[in-house]
TrEMBL record:
Alphabetized InterPro entries for the sequence: GrpB/CoaE (IPR007344), NT_sf (IPR043519)
Protein name, UniProt field: GrpB family protein
Gene3D superfamilies linked to this entry: Beta Polymerase, domain 2
Pfam families tied to this protein: GrpB
Source organism: Halomonas heilongjiangensis
Superkingdom classification of source: Bacteria
Length: 186
């Protein structure tokens, strides 16, 4: 498989959850170190987010990395350097994002990493860490989220965007004060 075929297969990859893999934190550490060595002045902090950062959580086997920068101008300045550092992205998709820039790494037709470049300690930064930390500390809530993810993955296997949107109420119930938890988990 050539590079173009690998990328297209990764882009079209269906939603597939796997059981938690204890190697995921090590994979994050390796990518974190690689990013910090290449961009030591630009990246103020790098955090492991998403389901692979929550012990015991089933997940798509893609390491979600959140890199904090001083401003969206810095995020935009990193666009081309990240493309030269093994990441790919859609310019059109990123044009729809006001609070982050999104990149992907892939190998052998599968996504390996998603990189979310956001303003350090900004609203999105705080919400993503709050979500991760809440699920790490509340086992009952994590079990509810895992069940929801499994249900949604079976319903939206061929539509990643629909899968992500369908988790939105649950995520908001954790990170937005006053959101009704009961509405988020059916």
């Amino acid at each position: 498989m050539n590079e173009a075929q690998s990328l297209q297969q990764a882009i079209d990859e269906p939603v597939r959850l796997v059981d938690y893999d204890p190697a995921w934190p090590t994979r994050f550490d390796a990518e974190c170190g690689r990013l910090l060595r290449r961009f030591p002045a630009e990246l103020l902090d790098v955090q492991h987010i998403g389901s692979t950062a929550i012990p015991g959580m089933p997940a798509k086997p893609i390491i979600d990395v959140m890199a904090g920068v001083a401003s969206m101008a810095v995020a935009d300045a990193l666009f081309e350097p990240l493309l030269g550092f093994g990441y790919v992205t859609s310019v059109e998709f990123n044009a729809t994002l006001s609070d982050r820039r999104w990149f992907m790494r892939h190998a052998h037709g599968q996504r390996t990493h998603h990189l979310h470049v956001v303003v350090y300690d900004g609203d999105l930064w705080r919400k993503r860490l709050a979500f991760r930390d809440t699920l790490r500390s509340d086992a009952a809530l994590a079990v509810r989220y895992a069940a929801l993810k499994r249900e949604l993955a079976s319903c939206h296997r061929e539509d990643r965007e629909a899968y992500t949107r369908a988790k939105g109420d649950f995520v908001r119930s954790i990170v937005e004060p006053g959101w009704d938890h009961g509405r988020a988990v059916r």
